[in-house]
Each structure stands twice: as C-alpha cells, then as structure tokens.
Design goal:
It is a single chain. The chain is mainly beta. The chain has a single domain, classed as Jelly Rolls. Helix content is 3%, strand content 50%. The strands form 3 sheets. Strands 2, 3, 4, 5, 6, 7, 8 and 9 form an 8-stranded antiparallel beta sheet that branches. It has a 6-stranded antiparallel beta sheet with strand order 1-16-13-18-11-10, with no helix packed on it. A 4-stranded antiparallel beta sheet has the order 12-17-14-15, with no helix packed on it. A hairpin with a 2-residue loop joins strand 14 and strand 15.
C-alpha cells in the first residue's frame, strides 16, 4: 500500500536533481579562421595600349596590379586617361607614396604646402615624372593637347622605411639621353636615390642602350619596376613595345637586350631593404 502511494516527482524537478553536483560543463573548443595572406605579386609585363575613353568620356582608370611584394607591403599601379580641361579628383592625401608619369599630353599638378615648401602648381609632360610624398595633398588636371594619358605607381608598407628620411615632393626629368659607354654600350643616369617612410631605398634610373647592347642576366635584391620609352627592349627573351610596364621581383633573374636598330631607353625604379 505504501508503495502504491509513493510521491511522484515532476519531470523538471527530477531533471534538476540529476544535474546537482555535476559541475559546469566543459566549454566547446572553437577554431578562429585564419585569413590567408594575399599572394605576392608575380612578374608581369603590361603594354599601356588601353582605350583612350571610358563610359563617361572624362576619366578612365585601368588597373594594372595591386598586392604585396617581396619588399613592399603593397604595390599598386594603374594607367589613366583624363579629358583635356578635366581634373581627376579634388586635392586629397593617402599614406602611399606615388609617382605620376605622363605618357601623352601635359598635366598640371597641384601640390599642397609641405613643411617649409609653399603650395604650388607644376606643369609636367612626357619626359618628366612627379613624386608625391606620403600624406601630401595633391590633385591633377589635364592641360592637353587632347586627353592626358599617364601611368601611376603607388607603394606603401615597406619593412624598413624610415620616418626621418622623407623625400620631399619632387619633379624629375629624364628627357636627356644618358651618355653611352663605348665598351658596354650602356649608359645610365640616377634620377632619384633616397630612403622614404615606405621604402628602405627608392632608386630611379634612366637607362640608354646602344643597338645590340646587353645587360647581363642576374638576380637583384630589389623589386624592379620599369617602363620602356622606346621599342626594341627585350627582357628574358620577351620583346617589349614602347610604353610597356614590367615588374621583376627581388631574387628573380632577368637580363636586358636592345634588339632594335636605334638607341633603346627605359626608366627603372628599384625598391630594396
């Protein structure tokens, strides 16, 4: 009789009783996904024979590359076409250092005040390029004749940049053909050689080569970006048209030959630690 009158515990009380003294449950381990680092930019060549106008007819930008290299945190390059009388953008700044390299047509560069250098407007054209320092205000407009076509290269995040070595905003001229050495058939002129906050060493060189001259194949400890000024330049057996941009990462072997009948020319930019 007593057994038949045993009190029945409600289900929720029974469940609670079973949990008494069990202690806290062990946390479930979760793995935080690790983002893969972007792949380094590989060697490439790009002929700057892009269409002159885009959909809006005023400003067109053609991307070439954007990514990390063996030396730089980011190397970005593009080619733009800007209608005569138009501006590409209002004055702005960016962390990246930058060069603007006109191919056709003159441009006017607005440069904001930089330390003790007053703001100014500078006219440049083919045969010249301009350097914008990190976080320096600048803008550009096309002066003509016709649309301005220009190559742009930006870089940032180099591993050994020095804040106390800041190359000021500068204009460089490579119109003068370097004297060619009679023995090697090669001539060069250093245009810029400086440390910057975003590059351990930034070196720009104008190079001229006699017909048939060669520069021996070798690997450099620098990233090299070059732009051909003439046809006839051949690198590792690849013939480059005039106004072709080539990139050769640090450690890659490459050699140069002028297979044309006239003096061949190009400008090379090197970034090293």
């Amino acid at each position: 009789m007593l057994l038949s009158n045993r009190t029945q515990l409600p289900i929720f009380l029974l469940a609670s009783a079973l949990l008494v003294g069990c202690g806290p449950s062990e946390p479930v381990a979760t793995e935080t996904p690790v983002e893969e680092a972007p792949a380094r930019v590989e060697s490439f060549t790009v002929d700057l024979s892009f269409p002159e106008e885009g959909a809006d007819g005023a400003f067109t930008r053609h991307s070439i590359v954007d990514g990390p290299t063996a030396i730089l945190g980011t190397l970005e390059s593009h080619y733009s076409v800007l209608e005569e009388g138009k501006s590409s953008h209002a004055p702005h700044t960016h962390r990246a250092e930058e060069i603007i390299f006109p191919i056709h047509g003159d441009v006017e560069i607005y440069r904001g005040q930089w330390e003790d250098i007053e703001e100014s407007r500078v006219r440049i054209g083919p045969g010249q390029f301009i350097f914008h320092a990190s976080n320096h205000s600048h803008a550009m407009s096309a002066l003509g004749p016709g649309p301005a076509r220009y190559w742009v290269m930006q870089w940032e995040g180099g591993p050994t940049g020095a804040e106390d070595h800041i190359l000021p905003p500068s204009t460089f001229d490579y119109r003068q053909v370097p004297d060619i050495d009679a023995a090697s058939g090669v001539g060069s002129e250093v245009l810029v050689d400086s440390q910057t906050p975003n590059a351990g060493r930034y070196l720009g060189t104008s190079i001229a080569m006699a017909s048939g001259a060669t520069i021996q194949t070798a690997a450099k400890d620098s990233d090299t970006v070059l732009i051909t000024l003439t046809s006839g330049i051949e690198i590792n057996g690849e013939a480059l048209a005039q106004h072709t941009v080539g990139y050769y990462p640090a450690g890659m072997e490459f050699g140069v030959e002028n297979t044309g009948g006239d003096v061949g020319r190009y400008v090379a930019f090197e970034f090293s630690k």
